[in-house]
Hints:
alpha+beta
Amino acid sequence: MKQFEKIKQEAYYANMQLPKLGLVLFTFGNVSVADRELNVFAIKPSGIPYDELSPDKMVIVDFKGTIIAGSLRPSSDTKTHAFLYKHWEHIHSIVHTHSTYATAWAQSQRAIPIYGTTHADHLTIDVPCAAPMTDEMIAGDYEYQTGFQIMQHFQENGLNYQEVEMILVGNHAPFTWGNTASKAVYNAAVLEELARMAFLTEQINVNALRLKDSLIKKHFERKHGPAAYYGQ
């Protein structure tokens, strides 16, 4: 259907960035791209190697998780994407990977501390880590509950999904999002690098201190504040 061509192309291109950026191995991970006017999103099909993907293989799904168009099964994480699109109306793309360092922090059930200015260029807080899912949630609609788990963590901790565009899910892996596919993929790459830097920092100095507030404020606001001056 021609009405879905744009998001299928965008989803294909975004998915192909994941192996190029070293964020996925084999078929791990997926990207989706939403069309808010049509209330649907395009997502990678389940279990298809990246070198076999094409725009036509992207699957179109609505925000309830129902397949609208496509001959292949969508990613097994589709219900998580659908949940987040349904409840967070300002996101237009979601990325899920099992990138090595970010996943290691998730498996450790630890938020990533804000140790340096690279982190502060993107966030003013630690990268959040949601608690591992309860047995009841695991036994239920698992992928749907993963979306609920993410949203619940944001609500309980007073976080704004438009300001914090990434999270680790305890014992699982990272999710990122953005108002474009390129921003969501960018966030996934940044999250992996922050995770790697924080890991190395703790190897060098187990007692490393968090970045002081004045540097957090300075570095974040020079890129995102009302008087931002970084970039063109």
